[in-house]
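Forwarding the complex inputs:
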Amino acid sequence: MEIHAYEKLWLALALVLIVGFIGTITYGAAGAGIDMIDDKGGTVDPATLDQHPKFGDPGIEQNGENSYDVYVVARQFVFEPGTTEPLRVPAGSTVTFHVTAADVIHGFEVVGTNANTMAIPGQVAEFTVQFEEPGEYGMLCNEYCGSGHHVMEGKIVVMEQEEFDSWYEQQQAQGEAEN
Amino acid sequence: MATASGGSEFVDKFPDEAAIVKASFLIAFVSLGIGAFFGLIQALHRTDVLRVIDSADYYTVLTGHGVLLAIVFTIFFLCGVFHWAIARSLDRPAESALFSWAWVGLMTTGTVLATVAILGGFVPNLGMSADVLFTFYAPLQAHPIFYIGLAMFIVGTWLSGADWFLSYRAWRQDHPDERIPLQTFMVLTTMIMWYISTLGVAVSVVFFLIPWSLGLIESVNPLLTRTLFWYFGHPIVYFWLMPAYLLWYTVLPKLAGGRLFSDPLARVVFLLFLLLSTPVGIHHQYLDPGIAEGFKFIAMTNTMFLLLPSLLTAFTVVASVEHGARQRGGKGYLRWLGALPWRDPAFTGMALAGAMFAAGGFSGMINAGMNINYLIHNTLWVPGHFHLTVGTAVALTMMAGSYWLVPQVTGTKLYSRPIGLLQVIMWFVGMVFMSNAMHRAGLAGIPRRTAEPQYQNFEFLTPIGSIFELRVQIALGGTLLFLSVVLFLFNILLTSLGEESDRPVDSYLPEPLSGPEGSPRILDNLAMWTGIAAVLVVLAYTLPLAGIIQNGGGLFGGGLPVPATVSAGFDLVMTTVTSAFNTLWGVVA
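Prediction (whole assembly, two chains):
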């Protein structure tokens, strides 16, 4: 087959570009350690989410020093927590999110960051992020989920550690009182 | 490549085929008009420039926009182009005009049903709606006739492919030793890719969504139907693109004043699309839970290699156009650009579409980059990207190509070249405004598919310019694009109403510089390439699908067992599909 010399050169450059792209992405995954959302979050039964030990009363819980788990339920058209109550996390902490959906497919995006995942009924999206400085972030649903999709939003408040600790203790105490 | 003999125009030589092409184009252009009007409403609504509808109805409009433009306009136009290309390049009419009308009829009926279901969303008391957008992710549910219409439409496209394969088989009996004509080769490889990829959406719609919307089954596994959608949802991108590529390879060089650079490389490009279009769909699901990272990595690698045929196309098309310019007396390293026929709307439209596809290709590389995709997933960046690809590379090429193709099937001269030229330039300028602003808005985190991306809890921030400026650009761009479609439809309507001419357009297509003779015959072995494509699909999808079914609560979600009737239906369809596949294989081999 006759291939022109310029065409061969172009083909070689195209392959170098492609391999280069794959290389940088592989570095991002292996070297820089950017994990993909995957199947490690496991599954839940969306029909009985209310009785689930974690998603039944979603929120934040401490799992180690400066380390927390956050459970979030997305449902038409709120995040629990996040919409009626802001989601509170301490500054300087490592937070592992577990996000699921109760009714239809939703999206979970922390505005201006790369914290972004699909929330699919039956599946749990698990990912870990660092919150460095105190401040506020918006969160929104970025997958169409019904006629009120555009009002589905919330807030994350990153608090000073001490402030967070007193709020967290108060929450724990309330929880025990209710039980 | 077979060439139309001088003096005999397509419409005179193949009147039945010309009628099919005209009918396909008519439905395509009506859909284009409605879809573009919906697009205008959206561009003005979400930027808060003008809100004539309730925000809840925005999603009805958006569903109509997506379905009418991305499915009906593009695919009906494809059917017209392919029907023309098969008759032209094989130099023979279709085997049965009745059969051709059957698939046009089936696809049209499907379109009408789905459209009625979508428009029903505007009438609250009707109890019929399909506000599920182009992707119809369950558990959002549409009225059953939406899914039924969709299924009929897909089956119609299968029959159209069968029509072209039958023509090819008849031609092959008369020409046992000839190479497959290039345009026919392009049509057949594209259709094989389409058969493989539509299997996913057919299974999703027929086994899960239709029974579920009729209440026969209680639930579906949302991740499974979503994965089956994307199994089809990425190859459809190439189903949009291949008719544009067919025009870029076989028509654009001629319009530029020259001829195609290389026939064999064109074949290689179409084969690469056949092989790689389907085992990449998971790259739309990089942020889906329930799919292991390894499968995403495989999809990413395949996606990157899918850049190759498009990069090769860039070379061949630019080289062919440059050859044309030099034939017209163009000189110098870049000065030859000035020698091109820029006053011809068919040429200029396709050239601008190709230039914009390069930009769309680069933003697509970002989408394909598994980890960088976190930044832009489901933001306005994504529609910014695909308005460059399907919305310009494809749509603008189709509109520009119409200025050359429509006169061939109507036998009338183009009504106005200057209006045509204004139209394609207006599209380009409108898209520059709208698409760059959408990309930048996406980087600021503004979501796609949202009626009112203005929130209570936070403001979006953009490093350059302002959010206000981005909104103005989107509204302005959307308005220009809509006006461009109005000009296009006006020009085509008046063309079709014009007086018949003996020579409506110069339809002669010259032979390529390097013909197929020098290339290995194995390129034409469609059965072998189909087999390899199928193996790649099995490798990319078996394990992810098994995982989704096993871990995600079974075939129907919620851990329900598979009812006996459904499993019997499964067997029936598997047998039908296998035998249909064997028949296709028999024709190909």
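Chain A has two domains: 1-34, 39-178.
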